[in-house]
Amino acid sequence: METKRFTKNDSGFICQQCGRTVEPLGYTSRNHCPFCLASLHVDILPGDRANPCGGLMLPYRAEPDPKRGYVLYHRCTKCGATCRNRAAHEAKVQPDDLSLIIALTAGEYLWKPNSK
User: Fold this and answer.
1) What's the pTM value of the predicted model, to 2 decimals?
2) 69: left (phi > 0), else alpha (psi -120 to 50), else beta?
């Protein structure tokens, strides 16, 4: 049996890093906060919410991608796992903070664990 590689799970949430309310994107799974770019380590496959870790994932790098705009890199503060996520800086509802994404591409946006 084939496992789905992506599950649309586009629900809103309260960011565990900055405390702001994040609205659904409307077209794909929103997996990080558009205001601080933090995420939670909750997926094994995109959108499945099946990872028991649940740790805070902070962005540590971003790269421009000609097909995807920008790709964000997150590291889990609990288990150290890393993942890549497409930025939503062109979203109609709560777009990702482009100034933070650009700072990440320059290596200027560094989080300290549990900083708010």
Assistant:
1) 0.82
2) left
